[in-house]
Design brief:
This protein is of the alpha/beta class. The chain has a domain of about 140 residues: Cobalt-precorrin-4 Transmethylase, domain 1, CATH 3.40.1010. It is about 60% helix and about 10% strand. The protein is built from 15 helices and 5 strands. It has a 5-stranded parallel sheet, sandwiched between helices. α8 packs across α11, α11 packs antiparallel against α12 and α12 crosses α13. The longest helix is centred in the middle third of the chain and has 30 residues. It starts with 9 loop residues before the first strand and ends in a 10-residue tail after the last helix. The N terminus and C terminus are likely disordered.
Length: about 325
């Protein structure tokens, strides 16, 4: 989007939360006066930014899946804060969810929570999504393939409902920031694309919103898809944005997701020999599953459903070696 006037604009930077994205995030954040993070407010956040709280101390309160990313992000945010950027944590859904957990820990009952309309909707959405996820985990251990596929679809529906609520709440919270007349950068994960639609609706001025896929240069070089999402997330987004998916498409995406999650590297990878190790892994795995039919997925799932990643990779490599496909899986 060359020549785009960023001043007094909202830029949504879609990406994964991996350390390899930070150089690209920095380029966008530096051009904006307000930076909106995709996380619930933390009481020690401002102290971390201005150095009163160490990054190590701040991270002790985080339940982070990717600590390497978080540590590097904190360092970047400190630098931007020192240069005058206003950095805000805005994620109302997660904020409400934390409040619910605190109330339950204090002895409140689900009935107490359901009496508060603000808490009730989040509690209900989270309960349905968590229940669907637990059902999927249970079914994935022993149930027939078609039943597991249906469990994936049920979770995707519940997750889509939760996703839409989360983005509606976040868009509502971000909208007042536009009254300051400053350019705003909004951090968002790939799957949170609905945020763009809700912000556009709230503002009524779609020309003010710019969408950037931070890792697009990397993914383009790897010849991957722009959003580089797995089939399960693609299915969830179809449900959220389009309100459904054709049965054959939903079945295939759900089936491919069963193979995708067995092959994907789940441990955090930091840039080293590769500048973008997670992107390389995700593109590689997507290339594999994109070549699989529903029948391929069923054959493979029966062989790898309980296997560790290393064994699953070996099984899939052998399957592809003896099939007409010529794809290879790295990592």
């Amino acid at each position: 989007m060359g020549g785009f006037n960023i001043r007094d604009m909202i830029t949504i930077g879609f990406s994964s939360h991996h350390a390899e994205v930070l150089p690209y995030a920095r380029l966008q954040m530096e051009q904006h006066q307000i930076i909106v993070l995709e996380e619930a407010p933390s009481p020690s956040f401002l102290g971390m930014l201005d150095g009163r709280v160490s990054i190590d101390e701040y991270m002790m309160d985080l339940d982070s899946e990717f600590p390497g990313f978080e540590r590097r992000m904190c360092t970047l945010l400190r630098e931007l804060h020192s240069k005058g950027r206003q950095i805000i944590q805005v994620e109302p859904y997660l904020e409400i969810l934390l409040q619910i957990h605190e109330l339950l820990s204090d002895g409140k009952t689900p009935g107490d929570i359901m009496k508060d309309p603000r808490l009730e909707s989040v509690y209900g959405a989270e309960k349905r999504a968590t229940g669907a996820l637990l059902n999927y985990y249970t079914q994935s251990l022993r149930a027939p393939f078609d039943k597991v596929v249906r469990a994936v679809q049920a979770f995707a529906w519940a997750d889509a409902e939760r996703l839409m609520m989360r983005e509606r709440l976040r868009a509502k919270a971000i909208t007042p920031l536009t009254s300051y007349g400053m350019d705003i950068y909004v951090e968002a994960g790939y799957i949170h694309y609905c945020l763009y639609h809700y912000l556009k609706k709230a503002l009524g001025r779609c020309e003010k919103i710019r969408v950037v896929y931070l890792l697009a240069p990397v993914i383009r070089k790897l010849k991957g898809r722009r959003r580089n999402m797995g089939p399960g997330d693609v299915l969830t987004l179809r449900y959220a944005i389009h309100g459904g998916a054709a049965k054959d498409v939903a079945n295939l995406l759900a089936a491919r997701s069963l193979i995708y999650i067995k092959l994907l590297q789940k441990d955090e990878l930091l840039p080293g020999d590769s500048d973008a190790p997670h992107s390389e892994d995700e593109v590689s795995v997507n290339r594999i599953v994109d070549s699989l039919s529903l029948e391929d997925c069923q054959v493979l799932f029966d062989q790898i459903r309980l296997a560790k990643r290393e064994k699953a990779i070996r099984v899939v490599k052998e399957y592809l070696r003896t099939s007409p496909c010529n794809n290879t899986l790295t990592g």
